[in-house]
Structures are given as structure tokens and as C-alpha cells.
Write a structure and sequence with these properties.
- It is globular, with a radius of gyration of 19 Å.
- The chain has 2 domains: about 30 residues; about 150 residues, 3-Layer(aba) Sandwich (Glutaredoxin), CATH 3.40.30.
- The longest helix is centred in the first third of the chain and has 25 residues.
- By secondary structure, it is of the alpha+beta class.
- The termini are far apart.
- A hairpin with a 2-residue loop joins strand 1 and strand 2.
- It has a 7-stranded mixed β-sheet.
- It is built from 5 helices and 11 strands.
Length: about 190
């Protein structure tokens, strides 16, 4: 009986500690009377270069987008907040691509291409005032090495805005605020 009680207490301590650290990692801060997601990017720090495979098996390097404003978006097909955010990303791609902007979707599904490719080819998203649309931006298959290069992830989606000269501007863990990220993109175009 004592051994079972000790195991239960140890389990509770572990859960409490995990919840505490998860709370700290995802805590919203109050700025000017409004809530804001934690931004872990050091503005001006160069974005790490990486090479990943796209859905056609071709290499894609972040450095090939130098000269463009890039929103690197870490997501997964099973992630509900990612599915909420995808229509906004489609809209941003439509609205800003002619001005030198792109979203680069980094799919983090463990199953890789076998799950991501059918999702991207078939899943349509309701676009505000524009009907349904497939994902219209480049998708690459992510891995833990690229996650490590960006300092790790505390959850999905996570987005990092990168300037034309390859510097990190903003990092958002969790759903992006459409207006906030649109304003940040526009300030770089």
C-alpha cells in the first residue's frame, strides 16, 4: 500500500512540474493592456539555413528564399490549431506573394510524406470571401534537426518571420494573430 501511494505521489509531482513548465513555455504576456503570445526570437538574429525535401522529393533550402520575406510555419496534419491557421496563410500567400513574400510550410508529421502529400492535395480550406482553396504555398517535410536549428518547438503551430536579408523578425508559438502577422509582413515588404 505504501509503495502504491509513493508511486501516485511521484506521478502527481511529475504532472505538476510538467504543467508548470508547459505553462511557462506557452504563457501569454500582457503588453499595453492586451494579451500577446510569447515571442522567443531575438530580432536580427540570422535564420538558420536548412535543406528539406518538398512533396516532389526535391531539395528546398531556406537560403534560396533570400531576398523574400518568409514565414516559416511548423505544422502537422493532426493539429487542430494548424487547420484553423491554414486559411489565413493561404490568404497571406495570395495577398503578398507578388510583393516578395512566401509562406514555407514545414510539415512535422511523424509519418512524413505518406500522410502530408494526400492532405495537401485533397484538403480544401474555406477562405474568407473567396470560396475553398488548397494550400497554395510550398510544403517541405520537417525533421528534428531543423527544429533544433530553430531552438526547439513548444507546440504547433509555430511560425518564424524572416526578413529579406535572412534575419529572424518574429516567432509565434500557437495560432498567429492574422492582423499582427499581416502588419509584421507588411513592415518588411
Amino acid at each position: 500500500m505504501k509503495k502504491t501511494a509513493l508511486i501516485a505521489i511521484a506521478a502527481i509531482v511529475v504532472i505538476v512540474l510538467a504543467a508548470h513548465y508547459a505553462d511557462k513555455a506557452t504563457r501569454l504576456s500582457v503588453s499595453g493592456g492586451s494579451f500577446k503570445k510569447a515571442d522567443n526570437t531575438q530580432p536580427g538574429k540570422p535564420a538558420p539555413d536548412f535543406t528539406l525535401k518538398d512533396l516532389d522529393g526535391k531539395n528546398v533550402n531556406l537560403s534560396q528564399y533570400k531576398g523574400k520575406v518568409v514565414l516559416v510555419n511548423f505544422w502537422a496534419t493532426w493539429c487542430d490549431p494548424c487547420r484553423v491557421e491554414i486559411p489565413w496563410l493561404i490568404e497571406m500567400q495570395q495577398k503578398y506573394s507578388a510583393k516578395g513574400f512566401t509562406v514555407l510550410g514545414v510539415a512535422m508529421d511523424e509519418e512524413g510524406k505518406s500522410v502530408v502529400a494526400p492532405f495537401v492535395q485533397k484538403e480544401q480550406f474555406e477562405i474568407d470571401g473567396g470560396g475553398k482553396s488548397l494550400m497554395n504555398y510550398p510544403i517541405v517535410i520537417g525533421n528534428e534537426q531543423v527544429v533544433d536549428k530553430f531552438g526547439g518547438l513548444f507546440g504547433y503551430p509555430t511560425s518564424v518571420l524572416i526578413s529579406r536579408d535572412g534575419k529572424q523578425i518574429k516567432r509565434i508559438t500557437g495560432l498567429i494573430s492574422y492582423d499582427e502577422i499581416a502588419q509584421a509582413i507588411e513592415s518588411q515588404l
